[in-house]
Structure formats: structure tokens, C-alpha cells
What we know:
Blueprint: H1 6-13, H2 19-27, E1 31-33, E2 36-37, E3 50-52, H3 58-61, E4 72-75, E5 79-84, H4 101-108, E6 129-135, H5 138-149, E7 154-162, E8 169-178, E9 181-188, E10 193-204, E11 208-215, H6 222-229, H7 249-258, E12 263-271, E13 278-282, H8 287-299, H9 309-318
Parallel strand pairs: 6-12
Antiparallel strand pairs: 1-2, 1-3, 4-5, 5-6, 7-11, 7-12, 8-9, 8-10, 10-11, 12-13
Helix pairs in contact: 1-2, 7-8
Amino acid sequence: MAGLRLDAALAKLLPDYSRSRLTSWIKDGSVTLNGKSAQPKDKLIGEEAVTVMIRPSEENLAFTPEEMDLDIVYEDDTVIVVNKSAGLVVHPAAGNWTGTLLNGLLAHAPELSQVPRAGIVHRLDKDTSGLMVVAKTLPAQNSLVQQLQARTVKRIYRAVANGIVPFDGKIDTLIGRDPHNRLKMAVVKYNGKPAVTHVKVLERYPAHSYIECSLETGRTHQIRVHMREANHPLAGDPVYGNPRHPCSDVAKEAVKAMQRQALHAYRLSFIHPKTQETVSFEAPIPEDMYHLLSVLRLEAGLDSSLSHEEEWQDKLDAEDDDDWNEDDYDVEVVYVRD
């Protein structure tokens, strides 16, 4: 090793670790040369004593079980249905290597360590609340992935949108990376993936609408992007919303208090991988979104208690909204791809 830089020598001595990682250890003081701190570019002359303190990578820590207060809606030996809280990241990634739903699931059900991605088959945005299904076995994971690909998993969301959404309908576009901002998604004309969202208007307020969205596809930020394309972005959306949306001061304060987009995964239906029966679950509107709706209803002179929720559900169940038959809509197509 005589004549080599320290980082190059360590790369030969410890081939299981990348040179960039070894370099970061040297800079962090985890490597000493003859008992003293060193620099990556230091040249070796031979016979030095090198000590390396191995540090676990953030990626490895990402799959460490962490005790977490999870809202488990249903669980058996095959699947877990969890009601994810707003603010909880689903899967570890840069900037969020720990404290994710995956970490909590591994602590709740250690057997998930034997299933890829701890059984997670679909995701919700960090600040979107609501239902997710997790597979506890490989066969269950394969079944759920196939159902998602076949679009037989039904996902119903409740949301508050800016403005008066005029009618029910379908938004059908291509979604891809925003050509002007690679950190965002957007409706694009070319090189995007097909995305279809069905929208029902549940109630209208002076400057907002309470809507229900059903996904045919599951693209990144799909509902948020589609509602922005329809000129009705979700209230409070920090990425795709309109912070200057004209509304009353009390409504603005209620939206601001949420500190997130008003979007909740309300209902989830799928074919149980083991019993082959269709199962459905619902998660009540979370407290922050409930408060926003109460304020909007009160402002509109309506009952702010949201006791009408059961009336809506009876009506929607009677319409068999899970099928989302396009012939039932006042307007079948809002946006149609050329």
C-alpha cells in the first residue's frame, strides 16, 4: 500500500464498502492513522497502523424496527390494514431513513422482515392520511400487487378542493415529471403514464368543495395533480395548491391550521389473498380535516356537526359508487387525452 492515498488503500483493504463511504468515515474521524486523525488524501509510506470504526449506514438503519403507535384497522395472518396518520412517511428514503411506517411495521410484526419492503405494496404521500394494506407473506404480496396492476383494488379518497367544483366527472390524462420542476409531477402531453381519477361532488361551500375521488390508476400525486389541472387544487396543498385562493379569513385560518393538503384515503376494498372474498374498510375523517369541514359548513349556514356524513354514505352505497359507472355521471369526461 506504500504510495497510495489513505482512501484508496482502505478501498482495497475493505472492499465491502464503497470508496465514498470510506472517505466520509475518514472525514468524520472514524479512521485514525497511527492513532491520529487523517485526511483521505494522506499518502501512506508503509507500516502504518490504521484503525477503522465501522459505522452502520443510514440505509441499513432504515430497516430497523421502531416502536410506534400505529392505528391498525384490521389484521390477520395474511394482511394488515393500517390507517396512516398525516405526517408519517411510508418508506425510508433520503432525508427520512428512520421514523417511517416501515420501521413501525417491522416492530409491530417482526415477520415482515422476511417480505420485500416489509410487505408495503402501495403508498400514500407523507401528508395524506388514510388506509393502506400491507402483506404479511410473499404470496399475499404477490396477490395484492397483481390486484393493483389489474386495477381491482378500490381506493376512495375524501378531499377539500378550492373553488366550486361544478359537476361530477372523470379526469383522464397522462402524468409525468414536471418538465419545469423535476421534484413535481404534472399533466403532460407525451412520455407520461395514463392516469384516471373519478370525481364526485359531495357538498359545495362559498369558496370550496367537499369531493370524493376514486382512483383507477395509482400515479404519484395523482389526485393532487389532477385537481390542479381541473383548476380546483386541494386546499392547503403546499406543492400544487394556491396559497392565495380567495376565501374568508376564517376559512383561510382553518386551511392553514391543517398544515397539509386536505386529502384522506377514506375507503379501501380488495380481494383477500387467502379467503378470496372482497373485503372493505373505512377510516373516519381525521380531526384536522373534520375541523376544516365543520368551519366550511358553518360558514355556509349548514350543520357543522357532519352528522350528514351517514346520509351521504347511504346515498353513495345506494349508487354502488365502488363500480364508478361512467354512465351515471352528469359529465362523463372532464379531460380526455388526444
